[in-house]
Amino acid sequence: MIRAVMKKLGQLSLGEWDRHELRRTVQTHTIPVYEIELPNSDGLKILWQVDYGFSIRSDSLTQLVKIWAVTANRKQIREILENLLIVHQVYTSKHLCVVQQENEDNVILPMTFEDEEETESPENGLHNSLMDDDRLLGVHKMLVTNKFVPLSRNLYKSLALGGFNFTFQVSKKEYEIINNPTSAIIIGRSGTGKTTCVIFRQIASYLNRRLCKTSSNDKTFNIRQIFITLSPNLCHRVKEYFNRLRESAMLAGKKISMTQFYEYKRKKEEEEVLDGIDSMFEEGNEEDDIPNSFHELADHHFPLFITYDKFSKMLQETYGIKSITKQRNLDAENIDSYDKENFYQKSSSIKTTNFVDYKVFQRRYWHRLNCDFDCELVYAEFSIIKGSNPEVDFLSREDYKSISIKKYPVFSYDRDRIYDLFEKYEAEKARNGHYDSIDRTLAILRLAKKKALGGPHIHEVYIDECQDNQIVDLTLILKVFDRVNNIFLAGDIAQCIARGSSFRFEDLYALMYNWERTRVKINHSNVDINPKRFELDINYRSHNGILKLASSIIDLIWHFFPNSIDRLSREHSKVCGPQPVFYDEFQKDDLLDREGSELDDDHTLRRVDGDENPFIEFGADQVIIVRDNKAKMQVEKLINKAGLVMTVFETKGMEFNDVLLYNFFTDSPACRKWRVILSALNENSKGIQTFSHERHYILSSEFKNLYVAVTRARQRLWICDENIEYSMPIRKYWKRLDIIKTEQSKGGILSNFAKKSESYEWNQRGKNFFEQRQYEQAIFCFDKSGNEERRKLANAYNLQQIAKDSINDSDDDTIITNFNDAIKAFKECSRPGQAALCYQYIGMYKEAGDVYVEHNMFESAARSYLKANLWHKACEYFEKAKKYDDAALAYKDGFLKDSLFYEIAIKFMLKYKQKISKKAYCNIAHHIKIYYHATAISYGKFEEAVEVYKKLINNYEDIKEILEFLLYICRINILNEIMVSITDSSTLQHYLSKMNELIAKMESQLIRKSDKWNDLMEEYNLYTAYLDKDINKTYECIQYFRSRKKLATEFYAVNIWLQILLQLSEIQIKNRHRERLHYLLWMCELALPFIKNIVDKKRDSQIEKNFEDIFCIKEANDPQKKQIPFSNPLLHVHEYVGEAMNNQRIYSVNNVHLRISQCLASRIFELIWDANKKGRDIPDISSQICYKFTSCERPNCLDHHVITTPSILHKRLELAFLQYTVMLKLDVLYRHRLLKEEQSKEVRRLQRWWAESLVKFHIRYQSPQISCPEVTCIVLSSLSDCTRKEFIKIARKIWL
Ligand SMILES: [Zn+2]
Question: Residues in domain UvrD-like helicase ATP-binding (predicted)?
Answer without folding.
Answer: 183-497
